[in-house]
Target: Peptidoglycan L-alanyl-D-glutamate endopeptidase CwlK
Amino acid sequence: MSVTLETLIDRSITNMKEGIHPTVKEAAIELIKRAFKENIYVLITSGYRSMEEQAVLYGQGRQSYVYNGKDYGDPSKPIVTQVKPGKSNHNFGLAIDFVLLSDDGNRAIWDVNDNWIRAANMGKELGFKWGGDWTSFKDYPHLEMKDLNPNSSRPMLRMGDTGEFVKQLQEALTRVGFFTGKCDGIFGEQTRQALINFQKANNLSADGIAGPNTWEALER
Model:
């Protein structure tokens, strides 16, 4: 039995995670639909990626890579990315990775064949830039919309909020040196105080609420 369109979309939405930009998510789903009509079965394997997840990937193939006091180096695996945490469009929900599946949906097809090229071109028609077009480190599964404003997809956050966007806020505050706690997705007093200190240091309204101006300042 062939894999269904609904299965491909449902699995892809799960893999893209909550932090994916809505425009990227919409285009990814449309890519899956267009490819399905041509009997090409596209699965999105990755979307939003936390800083820690990026550190794990960057550490692969390297003897040592320390991020936030933890060594993510893993020389037993091949290098899969040249991009450190905070530098990947995945970290801001602006990129996806994809793979093709066999007709039954049980086997990943990593060969960059005619169907793969066709899927990538469909993505480009939808506004993505394709990593396979890069001249140095070719990343064939990668599609991105780096010109989008990542902050347009992020909600207002305040004390008591929880979830992936809170974790993104904590990671951003950690990156700029204002948060030293665990990035657990829980907006507690430590997160609030770190946010207030960051806002004061950047001449923002120090209300402990992460709005558009705060998000923008965190991405500078």
The mean pLDDT is 92. Strands lie at 41-46, 66-67, 70-71, 95-101, 108-109, 129-130, 142-144.
